[in-house]
Write a structure and sequence with these properties.
The protein is an alpha+beta fold. 47% of the residues lie in helices and 15% in strands. The chain has helices spanning 7-23, 26-33, 40-53, 71-84, 91-104, 107-118, 233-248, 251-267, 279-307, 315-338, 347-350, 367-373, 384-395; strands at 124-127, 143-147, 150-157, 168-174, 185-191, 197-203, 209-222, 226-227, 269-270, 273-274. The strands form three sheets. The chain has a four-stranded mixed beta sheet. A hairpin with a 2-residue loop joins strand 9 (269-270) and strand 10. Helix 5 (91-104) runs antiparallel to helix 6 (107-118) and helix 9 (279-307) runs antiparallel to helix 10 (315-338). The longest helix has 29 residues, at 279-307.
């Protein structure tokens, strides 16, 4: 594998940089680079800007409206977006349910949903986890009973990210209670505006409404919203999770945040010198940077396999584990760098209510919330403990 970019790759990177420089709104860039909270309108606005360029479906086949980019080009795009400070293109539609629809959906489903996902006409959320069914996802209990040309869905999902904004939810539901638990699950697409659906917020430690509980009370779902075959949903769920775990690594964002950490640590003083020059703190930053470099090389190895038409396998679990460990260490070192300046919790500043923090340290003000929020990364997408089991069995053969 050649880890160096070709001349064509470098030319592509220049094209991406020029596009971002010309099209990324400065107010969105300011929010991202300064760790402020993004609204639904912020995410949709950036998505539609990129959609007009035709660059949303970076990993999609051209026949479905994708870019046709190579895996390396996709990596460059994601890295440059992170470096520039763009809002994320939310993965639930583009990178999670869309690959499932392309691989297992019928032609009518592809014609209807894929263009709407590309244009952000529908906001998607994920209905996987339930109370008592997180890491042991196959134990889920939300039931879908076939009645004529509809399913009647009853149950509850939890930790539904940004479900308060959603138009659609892709759900794992139990359609056969008598089968082995992995074999009785189906994959349904459900309109969130259907009568019988209730969304209740879960307010997190950082005081943000990001996740929710979703309740289904005799919700009527057309049979044509079933993806693939009934009781084959576990296969489709695993396919989706492979894509999700690869994306969680977020190397580009981690590299951007590493530079932020270095800047903050340079501004903070210890014994009259920049904190970054303190041997103990500098060694922590250096160790983290080495881990991040190793992660990037591993990502490049995995995408080189993808270039050879080998989709995400158990390697995705490695990326998920190491990527989230790096992200959490970054937030820990940020809080350590600013010390007590991270303690005041200025939510009005984070929400854009005023230009500067009441602490007069705009860099430090978001860091406690940032730290709390990133405690979740080692849990979602399959907890890191479960990923280590997968690595042990599928890669090490133990």
């Amino acid at each position: 594998m050649d880890l160096n970019y070709t001349a064509d790759d470098l030319a592509f990177r220049d094209t991406v940089r020029a596009y971002l420089d010309a099209n990324l709104p400065k107010d969105l860039q300011h929010k991202v680079l300064n760790h402020k909270r993004l609204s639904k309108e912020d995410f949709v606005r950036w998505h539609k800007i990129v959609a007009r360029q035709g660059w949303i479906g970076t990993g999609w086949p051209v026949e479905y409206g994708g870019t046709g980019w190579s895996a390396v080009q996709r990596h460059i795009w994601e890295e440059e977006c992170a470096s520039a400070g763009t809002p994320a293109i939310l993965p639930f539609g583009v990178a999670m349910v869309a690959p499932v629809i392309m691989a297992f959906g019928n032609e009518a489903q592809k014609r209807h949903y894929l263009p709407r996902i590309l244009n952000c006409d529908d906001w998607w959320c994920q209905g996987y986890s339930e109370p008592g069914s997180g890491s042991d996802l196959a134990s889920l209990k939300t039931r879908a009973e076939r009645q004529g040309d509809h399913y009647i869905v009853n149950g509850q999902k939890t930790w539904t990210t940004l479900g308060q904004h959603a138009d659609m939810i892709f759900c794992l539901v139990r359609t056969d209670t008598g089968a082995r638990k992995q074999e009785g699950i189906s994959f349904l697409l459900i309109d969130m505006h259907t009568p019988g659906i209730a969304v209740r917020p879960i307010i997190m430690l950082d005081e943000e409404h990001e996740v929710n509980e979703v309740f289904f009370d005799n919700v009527k779902v057309p049979v044509e919203n079933l993806i693939g075959e009934e009781n084959k949903g576990w296969t489709y769920a695993k396919y989706l999770l492979g894509h999700e775990r690869t994306n969680i690594a977020a190397v580009g964002r981690a590299k951007r945040e590493l530079q932020f950490l270095k800047r903050v640590a340079t501004d903070q003083r210890k014994n009259g010198k920049p904190l970054l020059e303190d041997p103990m703190f500098a060694s922590k930053v250096a160790s983290l940077e080495i881990e991040l470099m190793a992660l990037e090389v591993t990502v490049l190895r995995v995408i080189s396999q993808d270039s050879a038409k080998r989709g995400p396998g158990p390697e995705a679990s490695m990326l998920k584990v190491k990527g989230t460990e790096v992200q959490q260490t970054l937030t820990e070192l940020m809080v350590e760098a600013v010390g007590p300046y991270a303690m005041p919790f200025d939510t009005d500043y984070l929400d854009g209510g005023h230009e500067h923090s009441v602490t007069q340290d705009d860099d430090a003000a978001p860091l406690a919330a940032y730290y709390f929020n990133y405690r979740k990364t080692s849990i979602y997408g399959g907890s890191n403990e479960i990923q280590k089991n997968i690595i042990t069995q599928m890669i090490l053969g133990l």
